Amino acid sequence: MRQFFVSMSRGSRVAFAACLLLIALVIGGAAWWIAHPPYGVLFGDLRQSDAAEITSTLGQMQVPYRLTDEGKTILVPNDQVYETRMKLVAQGVPKGGSVGFELFKDSDYGVTEFAQKVNFQRALQGELERTIDSLDEVTSCRVHLTIRHTDLFERDQEASKASVTLSLRPQKHLDARSVAGIQRLVASAVDGLSPESVVVLDDKGVALSGYAADGQGGALGGDQLDREAKLETQMRERVGELLHRVMLTNDFTVSVDVRLNYDHVKQVSERLIAQGKDGNGLLVHEKTNSSGRIPDSSADTDHVATGPTSSSNDRDLEYAHGREQEEVEQAPGRIDRISVGIVIPSTLPQSEINKLSDVVSAALGLDASRGDKVDIAAIAAPEPVEAAAPAALVALPAADAALPDTAATAPAQVVDIVSPKWVFPVAAVLIIFLLIAISKARTSVPPRLSAPQREEALARLRRWIETVETE
Hints:
Layout: H1 2-7, H2 10-35, E1 39-43, H3 48-61, E2 66-68, E3 73-77, H4 81-90, H5 113-133, E4 138-146, E5 161-168, H6 176-189, E6 198-202, H7 222-247, E7 253-261, E8 265-273, E9 282-293, E10 310-320, E11 322-330, E12 334-345, H8 350-364, E13 373-379, H9 390-393, H10 423-444, H11 451-470
Parallel strand pairs: 5-6, 12-13
Antiparallel strand pairs: 1-3, 2-3, 4-5, 7-12, 8-11, 9-10
Helix pairs in contact: 2-10
């Protein structure tokens, strides 16, 4: 081995040392990769209770795991992601922090009827919580039920009631249709419960249910919301077609908001009808009483009664008046207000914009006394911004953003940036190139002469020098 190193040149020795170092690095990297396999996402965006339950089960299964994203994401070896996930699902892990109908799996026959009712209510609440938690916008929820119990001797029984508290994800919200769907879901699962008796709150205590389009109470159903959306779409298309014909371009934005009133209003009015010549009514009955007093002449027969006599007349009249009663019931679903907002480029003068506003109002049949209005804003296009330096546009990912925020059903993602399957082929190619370089270096350098060969070469050199001198 020493003779091998002595016979090598300096460049060959450096290349051979680099090859040995590379082989050592490859072997060390392979050993580290075998001891630390790549990890994939098992579950993401977990609550603390669910993460604690999953990690406890993984410890019992002797599956290595890691916690990232402040304990909200659990990682396991990449080749065990799907198998581990199926095993956890088969065991019912995670349970979501609530108890479902598995509560009756190992029920005791000695449980009283009251305890069975309480367990049934707990199980029903837990199943509803799991169903609502499956929504993308919901992080967690709590359901409270007040179930009516039929009794033979009680006639007046209160209806069932329910309350739902939702914790929403950041930058997420539920529209009225989703809230109405949650109300119907809970009402369909509980006997004697109507959707109007289900109160839905958010994590800030704000009621999400029980508001109509005008904000004065009354929950809107899905059909009513569909009608509003349909009217808004029709009006938006009508205004868009009108603007396209006027401006000969689609460089505009139209927004229409329709408020429908679904209140049941019933009005009853009653008034007298004037009849007769003087307007007092029709004469039905007339009674006249006349009375008078004559002086007594029996005392003085010689004198003639010449004084006036006293009399009185009483007249009693009865009139009949006509009455007119009108009862008007307004059908729900009438238009309460229409608001139209239009944004166009600043190419039209103000006079043309005013005319365009009048045309849009006439086309949609807007009523100013009802509160309908049209706002048209002419906004100039923004000036182009000069492109910044490429270095300023490139944003390095944060350390916490290395792992994606995936749900439990999302496919596993490999954490390692470089896939390990390319390590061995690349290392083999590098080793081959280094061996080729070493062989070329050894062939390019002439081999060193032995002692007899050096003596013979020196003797030849002396004879050649002596021959040249003699000449």
